DUF2062 domain-containing protein (Occallatibacter riparius), 167 residues
Amino acid sequence: MKPTAYTFESMKKRAAAWLLEGISPQRLALTLALGFVLGCIPLVGVPTGLCVVLAVVFRLNLPAIQAANYAAMPFQLALIVPFARLGGKLAPATHAALDFSALAQSPMQLMHASSSVAAQLGVMAGQALLAWLLLAIPVVGLLTLTLTQVLRRVPAVAEAKARGLLS
């Protein structure tokens, strides 16, 4: 089986097909915006499940939200450190900086250091999640407005309106 390459043209065709299925441009734009923003959560592995839950609960287009989620993966990885830094400024932790010097010591020091490092990484993940939460809602709003305008210019929308699929 040959893997599918996602090009701009193939994404346009998929969006047009979704619009022809009766999804309004506003609903599709919201679905894509939610998928993209959820895909940027600074916790690796979490966005896919969240997108499935949101799609089922709010009856969103599951392939569309997952496509946007997967498109955001490079951004997710690139934004982990900036989110952690911003979260660290918003909610400073009371612990010392990460110390890896104990990793070269005895097994007992290694066990103590690993629990300390895990706790510090957990705090950093919480700080990064806080920063993401503060930015997520405005970004979803802006992306939804922008994508709605873009999707209204897709020729498939005019065709869907002509068929009576959209109001």
Notes: The mean pLDDT is 81. Residues 72 and 111 are 36 Å apart (CA to CA). The two ends are 39 Å apart (CA to CA).
